[in-house]
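Researcher: Next entry in the queue.
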Amino acid sequence: MRPSAVILSVIAILQMNTPQLGAGSLEKAYFAATPPGAWAKYESSWEMAGGIAGANAYTYIRASDSDGRVQVETTTHVLAGPGEGVTTRQLFIMEPDFDLARDFMNRMSYLEASAAQSGEGPASLMQANVIEIMRASVGDLTNSVTFKGSKTIDGHECDHYVYSYSTGGSSVTHQEGEICLDEAVPFGVVFQKGRSTDQDGALISSYEQKLVESGAGSPAFSAGQPGDRGAVGGSFQLSVYEGSAVYQGSVDVGPLE
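Model: Structure for this entry, 257 residues:
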């Protein structure tokens, strides 16, 4: 691998298209309690076809806005599975018209640029064609949900939603899952799980994530945990959860100018 290149091994949960008829929209601005400096820590587990499985601990941090653009940093520590022990960071830079309070669930549709960093090495900018692939792969999850009622999770009084829909094209994929939201929590999400199957009902991927801790200001991290940037390993791997279907790939990108 060239010294100026970073190989991104991405396990991402990306929202898909074509919501099922009858779906509604989120009833509140669940993500408004997320000013610059707000953060939320999660733990998650995932499984893919072929028996590949893993677990991550990760943190969303809303960084300071830049030139009117919202910036969100994701820091991930791989607890088990491929890349175990690796910690990475990625910065997502949104378009100027992105409204986090309203559009957070659909944030990949507003992605303008993304940079990644391993340890103290130079940051690397994700190539424009990869950004376009990510933007084109997402759907309108905000308006593809069905409200199911209230649910208490670890003391959080949440609104419980489910979703179920299929993608078209030559290979039909079915997505289903649930999400529990608390408007008082930074980034809003308290619990989420999803499952993706092919047209024959065979598993493509599944995942489950749960809020561990949240707050404002700089989150405290112990060695080897998300946010401990000195703990990042030499080989760069990235795991980011964004929706309901696993996206995998490797991208060779140059250094951020």
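Model: Residues 128-136 form the longest helix (9 residues).
Researcher: Noted, moving on.
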